[in-house]
Amino acid sequence: MPAQLELTPAWRELRAHLRRTVGDSTFEIWLSTLEAQNWDGQVLLLQAPPGTKAWISDRYGRVLERSAKAIFGARARVEFAADLAAPNRRADTAPPPHEPVDIGRFIPRYTFDQFIIGDSNRLAHAAALAVAEAPSNAYNPLFLHAPPGLGKTHLLHAIGNYITAFEPQTTVGYTTVEAFTNGFITALNTKALDRFKHLYRDVDVLLIDDVQFLASKAKTEEEFFHTFNTLYDSGRQLVLTCDRLPRQLTGIEDRLRARFESGLVASLTPPDRATRVAILRKRAALDRIALPDPAVIEVIADRVTDNIRSLEGALIRVVAHHSLAGKPLDGELALSVLAEIHPESAATGAPTVKSIQKTVATHFDVSTELLVSASRAANVAWPRQLAIYLSRELTDKSLQAIGEAFGGRNHATVLHACKRVGDRVGSSLEDAAELEALHKLLAPARADRNS
After folding, report:
1. Which of 46, 128, 149, 412 lies 20 to 30 A from 57 at CA?
2. pTM of the model
């Protein structure tokens, strides 16, 4: 081509692919400034800010190439155009790659206003907002736990954006554990450890993404521990995100896990259908996507159930196919596009862990929040075990995925719950009748799945 007309939708799909690959935070900080200059059928020419072009090429060149091949075809290559100041951003203000902590610069669209609240994230949102409104006076530390793609990084940046807007005298730092590790190694090699320490320890609020990557990094973990203590002991706020609960962090010292658990641990779980629909509508509005057929959102919300990032990526993919192929943007196109990456087995009607949780919670008159909580009360433990058992029996989710959906429990806990249900049902007619009643409540979904 010089297919400039076709480049725009394909470039949107490529950006969505990159975002899913590297994560929201890394994408926004390093890759969001990239611009597609041209595509000639083989070479995708990209423009990057002069101050970060070499860093992006060295660090993310292979990721960019793989993403280009996934979208444009196996023969695609990525090259960078000659230096040209990126619009709306001066080259001399680009973040130098040796700076591991970013002060006061957060992803603009990640605000509390843009965060869709549902049962799956209500506690985490409320806790993050409380921290933003009164750092160090609410929950310190705040530990946000969820599998990838459920909004942890969004809340982390929302805290930073809120404090920057309403408390500009408060210094807020953001880092990932990867950046912390790389910065620490560089500081050791260049004998700049004092400067490194000041970068982290002179802030009022420190936001730390992906602390699971501390595992098995003894020297980095030691430095992180002392940084944590310095900030905490001086009354400054820490907020951390992780893809597992503190007790599940293997390869990390007990003393650090204890620090993580000393504040509030708030989990985010996959969104329910109403929340998924709201997320898609919000994303469409943000991207100014006109959707003449509401079935597009309905189809995507039904097919993509466990990950917000995948949910938004599916919308972008459908819109890109509409632009490239010139087909109507309707439910039929959405079904066709999603057939490969989100097949029919994931469609509505099939039992999901979320629907099983709701059915069991309603049957036993407990809340879904309590069902996935740490409570060991008898009136909660048995319904939870039944819900776990049914989730394993009626869905194709892995033991780990089921455990994550039930408050971050591990696979051993899932197996124990299943064994417990099997034992009780085998020895008690009453318990067997309870299980059968739940099967009947879920029967319509099971019939839809098997028809």
Report:
1. 149
2. 0.58
